[in-house]
From TrEMBL:
Name of the molecule in the record: Lactonase family protein
Gene3D superfamilies: YVTN repeat-like/Quinoprotein amine dehydrogenase
Keyword Cytoplasm carried by entry: no
Keywords noted in UniProt: Carbohydrate metabolism, Glucose metabolism
InterPro entries: Cycloisomerase_2, Haem_d1_sf, Lactonase_7-beta_prop, WD40/YVTN_repeat-like_dom_sf
Pfam families, alphabetized: Lactonase (PF10282)
Family, similarity comment: Belongs to the cycloisomerase 2 family.
KW Cell wall biogenesis/degradation (keyword) present: no
Length: 426
């Protein structure tokens, strides 16, 4: 599997609508342009139920549904639903849904639907096996998930999901441990009944980096839409690039087309992983897994300009690293990033409101191994981190003024916890 610990254990201008050559190495697979335009028109006519990720109006009692995605095995069967009280930080399990390796989740803005990757085949599976995307109807009041349908992710090891800001399409990043088919991302229409349609576009990256065993081929690790909804950025750990695409769902220029710049080159061997945008849309932040750094970008009209790079490790740190998740506090004042390897901690940075630059203010042990993902609750008072290799999650109280995480967190026993999603029951 592409996660750090398992890998370490093994030691332009023309729209997409048909196959064509570009100056940078990509391969495309898509239905005809007319089908894409027809899908865009169809979805625009429908009253779209599955809108962009987020959650509805905050509940009056402060209680949210917390969904936890896992790697399945002896201690986990799929997705778990908890009732989480933002006033006390207490969580109680409500239900679960069986599905294979739902290592990344995303909920529609109205909370009625939940989408999960099925991360297959992994380290030892045959490269001919493709991963899947599963759709569920979610009854937030009862906390019950109902399976709707499943489609191929059109690649290996899907590890990330994102819903377009207009709610029309779902994208996934196919990391692909195997060199063939290699890293890619795919785009799926979302139907009015919550089901996910078959992919209408698949883009294969090509490229590599200097880190043997981790960068022998392309590895797309995240697909992130810009806040204005006009661009999609695909972070490629294997190629050390942030690829950028123009999103035009009306079909006037194809569904997605390369921007004029086409990609941002990152320092060789850094392994870009996850990208997040500031609430005001003026800045973006990136974790680079192999280098364990956080990069700061100025953002404008589809262009990312690198302005700062800060280390996640302490001075003099010796050991394995593996930068992973990155999230901003709801008010945008603090940024948090997780580092696995031998560090196993969350690093806390204050954000300069004028420049977006970062200044480290603290760090907190995850109290376990491999903190692959974490999440801050919608109220901003709590941070929950999943220790994938310790079968535990911890809920830390978060100081709103200092950004620091307080001691004595609540412990939850969950088999291989990975990702988290919040839904308001009201």
């Amino acid at each position: 599997m592409h996660c750090f610990n398992r890998a370490a254990a093994r030691s332009a201008s023309r729209p997409f609508g048909r196959r064509f050559a570009l100056r940078f190495p990509l391969r495309f697979s898509t239905s005809t342009a007319s089908i894409i335009k027809g899908l865009a028109l169809m979805v625009s006519i429908l009253a779209t139920s599955a809108s962009a990720q987020g959650t509805a109006t905050p509940p009056a009692d402060g209680v949210y549904d917390l969904l936890v995605g896992t790697y399945t095995g002896p201690k986990s069967e799929g997705i778990y639903v908890y009732r989480f009280d933002t006033k006390t930080g207490q969580a109680s399990r409500v239900s679960s849904a069986q599905t294979v390796n739902p290592s990344y989740l995303v909920a529609s803005r109205d909370g009625r639907f939940v989408y999960a990757v099925n991360e297959l085949p992994g380290d030892n599976g045959p490269a001919t096996t493709r991963g899947d995307i599963s759709a569920f109807r979610f009854d937030a009041k009862s906390g019950q998930l109902t399976f709707l349908n499943k489609v191929s992710s059109e690649g290996n090891d899907p590890c990330y999901l994102s819903i377009s800001p207009d709610g029309r399409y779902l994208t996934t990043a196919n990391y692909s441990v195997a060199a063939d088919p290699g890293g890619s991302f795919a785009v799926f229409p979302l139907e009015a009944d919550g089901k996910v349609g078959k992919a209408v576009l698949t883009v294969h990256h090509e490229g590599n980096g200097p880190v043997k065993g981790r960068q022998d081929n392309a590895h797309v690790h995240s697909t992130v839409f810009s806040p204005d909804g006009h661009y999609l950025f695909a972070q490629d750990l294997g190629a050390d690039k942030l690829f950028s695409y123009r999103y035009t769902p009306d079909g006037s220029r194809g569904l997605l087309g390369p921007t004029e710049r086409r990609y941002v080159d990152m320092k060789a061997g850094t392994g870009p992983r996850h990208l997040v945008f500031a609430p005001d849309g003026k800045h973006a932040y990136l974790t680079s897994e192999l280098a364990a750094t956080v990069d700061v970008f100025d953002y404008r009209d589809g262009n990312l300009a690198l302005v700062q790079s800060v280390p996640m490790t302490k001075p003099g740190f010796k050991g394995e690293v593996g930068a992973a998740a990155i999230h901003l506090s709801p008010d945008g004042r603090f940024l948090y990033a997780s580092n696995r390897g031998d560090a196993n901690e969350i690093v806390i940075y204050a954000v300069d409101p004028a420049t977006g630059h970062l200044h480290e203010v603290g760090r907190q042990s995850s109290l376990g191994k491999a903190p692959r993902e974490f999440s801050i609750d919608p109220s901003g008072h709590w941070l929950i981190v999943g220790n994938q290799n310790s079968d535990t999650a911890f809920v830390f109280r978060r100081d709103l003024q200092s950004g620091l995480l307080e001691a004595n967190p609540t412990r939850l026993e969950i088999g291989s916890p990975v990702d988290f999603a919040w839904v308001s029951p009201s």
